[in-house]
Each structure stands twice: as C-alpha cells, then as structure tokens.
Amino acid sequence: MIYSGEFVAESKPNPAIYLNTLQKLKVKPEQAISIEDSYYGITAAKAAGITTIAYKETRAEVDQSGADYLAADMLEIYELIKSLNK
C-alpha cells in the first residue's frame, strides 16, 4: 500500500495522513512507530498518538524536541525500535 500527502486535504502538522494510514492498516496508534525529521512531521505523528523517533537533523536547525526519542542514524533507529518492541 502507498499512502501519501496527496490523499489528504491538509498536510502536516495536521495528523490526518497518520490517522488515515492507521485506519487503513487497522493498526492502533500505540502499535505504530513514526520516524520523522521535521517539526511538522513530529507534531503530526504525536497528535495522532504515535510514538515518534526523530532522525537527528544536522543540516539545519530543526526543533525536534517534541519527539519521544532522538536518533543519530538509521542503525540507532533500528536498535531503538528493537528495544521498544520487547
């Protein structure tokens, strides 16, 4: 399944893209994990009730403080996801 922002009326930080995707996948917010790098993405995921990992942005100043976790790279994200699923 492919579901993108073109299917929702409002883009992030509106949580519609996350809420619609959860509904289509029949997944509860507490069963999902979001990986985001932007303030608006983090805000949208958190508004949908999803645990959120921020992929640390190093190219520009971005407020990622709303995320539940901050990870420096994909390996750290992978390890974090494994630890959350125990």
The major beta sheet can be summarized as: 3 strands, parallel
What is the CATH T-level topology?
Rossmann fold
The secondary-structure class comes to alpha/beta
* Mean pLDDT score: 96
CATH superfamily: HAD superfamily/HAD-like
- CATH architecture classification name: 3-Layer(aba) Sandwich
The share of residues in extended strands comes to 5-15%
Spans where pLDDT lies below 50 across 5 or more residues: none
Q: How many structural units, i.e. domains?
A: 1
Q: Kindly state the number of beta strands.
A: 3
What value does the Rg take, in angstroms?
13 Å
Write down the CATH class. Answer: Alpha Beta
> Per the principal axes of the C-alpha atoms, what is the gross shape?
globular
Helical residue percent band: 25-40%
Strand order of the largest sheet: 1-2-3
Contiguous helical run count: 3
Could you please describe the fold and organization of this structure?
The protein has 86 residues and is an alpha/beta fold. The chain has one domain: Rossmann fold (3-Layer(aba) Sandwich). The chain has 3 helices and 3 strands. It has helices at 16-25, 39-47, 74-84; strands at residues 33-36, 51-55, 69-71. It has a 3-stranded parallel β-sheet with strand order 1-2-3, with helices on both faces. The protein is globular. The N and C termini lie far apart (27 Å). The mean pLDDT is 96.
